[in-house]
Task: inverse folding
């Protein structure tokens, strides 16, 4: 059985700041990132849908020790955001001082754009990744 | 199913970067385990070996076959297990299954890793391979970063003020350092017994809010255990340690665990399997070697395993309830924090410790008096692989 939405198409859309998800016909859950079976009920009967990118910060961390090849990116802030339609997304929080990031960030509303991680020698290619910023 | 016993255990010192190859490290631990079982290499019917990152550490794949040949276990089937930091526990659990099935009567299981030899940059990169490479790593998430995010989430979810939580976490590290400092095979043997809350909180920030002393080290090391059927075990030793319950469970990327975090659903399922198989409950456990890769991970694990209420485990460390003499002795070896975390070997190292606890072979100040029932808990990746085992005295 073919998957309804593959990484390649999700990734290409994300580069255009368009977030694609899969809406389950059985239970209505939105699954992001794309996979074969609904994250809630396991049904493969899902259809591709464009998902609203508004959300709020669930948790975060500012990273000071980076992986080999990414040392010069530190410090940077990683966040998990809960989208209004339910799914969680991992990305970066920009437009703040990473060193000043505090627990007060949790619950704050954010909007999404994207950046492209070019990949490293272990990656099969470039990958779009969500970048969030606080909504005033 | 047949009853399965641990009849012998071995472990190298867990350490920082060192010069022995992975095959050489494993050979030391395995030969100690085989000789301690009153067996010869030719008695071993199969080798199940955890090794998460050997490809990156030494450019070595398929290491289990080389490891077996090196110790004189010729022509036996050898399987390598990769489940990040839970690799060796998967290997031991599968070895248990094969012996329980009656197919093999004596199996060697264990693990090896040279994570420290890679250095911090490469180790951080390769450990991040256990997050989702497409949907999580592009953000720059690291392994400590995952648990850092769980720390804030824990604080929010259970309404434990962050300052208080961080003090409780520091007390977890202090307890582990205390035990590790007198464990001769621990990476921090002879070190950090004088750790204080101030020193933990004031150390280098790895990723907020985790400091260096909240995090386990990168480690090199190996561990091995010999499992045998009950009838064989009775001939080999007066002190067989039976594996009475096991469980294993998996999850997807961290972001897909949203309905439960900071609870780890896969751990709840895995540990319930183990308790049910053993006919035991959390209150029955005298000693538990659990997966304290980060101080917050200890608190989260002890709650999912049922030792303490959700959001309350920090108080247990403050009151000494998770130490020797308390409700359950957690990580009297020093745990991953102080004993070390050579990831592919860690689970076998936990079995090594629990078996010695039940046999009463620990250093006096790390021995849980009259320990009869022990448990292991090992976590791989973003809480995506969990293995639990319950071990009991067979005499
Ligand atoms: Zn569904």
Result:
């Amino acid at each position: 059985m073919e998957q309804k939405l593959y990484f390649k198409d999700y990734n290409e859309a994300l580069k255009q700041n368009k977030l694609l998800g899969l809406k389950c016909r059985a239970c209505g859950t939105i699954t992001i990132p794309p996979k074969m079976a609904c994250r809630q009920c396991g049904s493969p009967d899902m259809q591709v849908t464009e998902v609203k990118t508004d959300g709020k910060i669930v948790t975060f961390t500012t990273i000071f020790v980076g992986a080999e090849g990414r040392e010069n990116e530190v410090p940077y802030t990683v966040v998990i955001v809960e989208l209004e339609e339910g799914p969680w997304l991992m990305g970066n929080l920009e437009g703040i001082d990473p060193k000043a990031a505090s627990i007060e960030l949790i619950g704050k509303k954010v909007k999404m754009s994207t950046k492209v991680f070019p990949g490293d020698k272990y990656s099969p290619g470039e990958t779009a990744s969500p970048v969030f910023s606080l909504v005033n | 199913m047949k009853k399965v016993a641990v009849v012998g255990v071995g472990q190298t010192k867990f350490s920082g970067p060192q010069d022995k190859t992975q095959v050489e490290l494993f050979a030391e631990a395995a030969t100690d385990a085989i000789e301690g079982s009153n067996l010869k290499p030719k008695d071993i019917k199969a080798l199940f070996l955890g090794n998460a990152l050997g490809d990156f550490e030494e450019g070595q794949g398929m290491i289990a076959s080389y490891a077996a040949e090196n110790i004189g276990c010729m022509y036996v089937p050898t399987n390598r297990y990769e489940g990040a930091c839970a690799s060796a526990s998967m290997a031991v659990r599968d070895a248990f299954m094969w012996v329980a099935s009656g197919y093999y009567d004596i199996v060697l299981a264990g693990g090896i890793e040279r994570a420290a030899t890679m250095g911090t940059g490469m180790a951080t990169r390769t450990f991040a391979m256990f997050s989702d490479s497409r949907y999580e790593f592009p953000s720059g998430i690291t392994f400590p970063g995952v648990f850092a995010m769980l720390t804030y989430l824990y604080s929010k979810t259970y309404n434990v003020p962050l300052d208080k939580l961080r003090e409780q976490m520091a007390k977890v590290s202090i307890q582990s350092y205390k035990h590790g400092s007198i464990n001769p095979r621990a990476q921090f043997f002879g070190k950090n017994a004088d750790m204080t809350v101030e020193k933990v909180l004031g150390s280098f920030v790895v990723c907020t809010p985790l400091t260096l002393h909240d995090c386990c080290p990168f480690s090199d090391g190996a561990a091995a255990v010999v499992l045998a059927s009950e009838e064989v075990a009775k001939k080999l030793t007066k002190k067989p340690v039976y594996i009475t319950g096991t469980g294993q469970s998996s999850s997807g990327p961290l972001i897909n665990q949203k309905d439960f975090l900071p609870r780890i659903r896969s751990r709840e399922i895995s540990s319930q399997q183990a308790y049910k198989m053993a006919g035991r409950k959390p209150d029955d456990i005298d000693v538990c070697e659990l997966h304290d890769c980060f101080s917050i991970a200890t608190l989260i694990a002890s709650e999912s395993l049922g030792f303490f209420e959700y959001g309350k485990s920090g108080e247990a460390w403050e009151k000494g309830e998770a130490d020797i003499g308390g409700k359950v002795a957690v990580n009297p070896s020093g745990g991953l924090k102080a004993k070390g975390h050579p990831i592919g070997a860690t689970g076998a190292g936990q079995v090594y410790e629990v078996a010695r606890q039940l046999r009463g072979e620990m250093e006096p100040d790390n021995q849980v008096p009259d320990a009869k029932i022990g448990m292991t808990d090992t976590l791989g990746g973003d809480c995506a692989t969990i293995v639990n085992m319950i071990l009991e005295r067979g005499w």
Notes: Residues A 24, 26-27, 29, 38, 40-41, 43 surround zinc ion (CB under 6 Å). The radius of gyration of chain B is 19 Å.
